[in-house]
Amino acid sequence: MRLEQTQAEDQFKCWLTDDDLDELRRAAGSIRDDLVIQLGGFVGLRAFEIPQVCPKHVKRTPDGDHFRLRVPEGKDTTSSGGKPRDAYLPREVEGDIHRYVRSEDVGRHEPIVDLSESGIRAVVKRTADRAADATGDEDFRYVSSHDLRRRFAQRLLVDKQVNPRVVMQVGGWDSFQAIEPYLNAPTPDVVNAAFEEAGFA
């Protein structure tokens, strides 16, 4: 994890790795809390979007091989109201949602994660504190729900080199300017690969 100082005192942007996400998932206090981590880190949902999604919003694509998660109301970035979008839903996350919905008897029109936005933020904070206790890495204490979404974007744009227009569509970004910060922050693995490719291994 890399920390980047913000203008606010004692607040940092956390550039997580997938190993960091795994630590957070291990530290989750419940299946619900693990779903919160996954919906932020692997689906790219914002804290206020997670409580919006219900089982009816999980859709299988016409080819039958992929899933989408309809986000009813995304962030209002153009002053014209929040727009719905179809986030890409990885098969593993879809499976965990399906099992949770069945075990908790969540109705089709009920929130999968029945918490407020502040409740989502509290889950992430609690889980991050547990991860700090478990690993001894105090940097986890700075992790916020937005850092999960930051990892989602960086994985796609930097690690996997996914077309930025695709990332914008599934993540609800309206401009290249909005995703540019994620493009300018290579992960340690990307840095290592670049130097190896240049013959500096």
From TrEMBL:
MF (Gene Ontology): DNA binding
Region Disordered: start-end pairs: 64-86
Residue spans of biased composition, Basic and acidic residues class: 64-76
Organism: Halorubrum distributum JCM 9100
Keyword Cytoplasm applies: no
Coiled coil stretches, renumbered: none
Any Pfam family the entry gives: Phage_integrase
Keyword field: DNA recombination
InterPro entries: DNA_brk_join_enz, Integrase-like_cat_sf, Integrase_catalytic
PROSITE patterns tied to this protein: TYR_RECOMBINASE
Domain Tyr recombinase: 11-196
Protein name: Tyr recombinase domain-containing protein
Protein biosynthesis recorded as keyword: no
UniProt record, GO biological process: DNA integration; DNA recombination
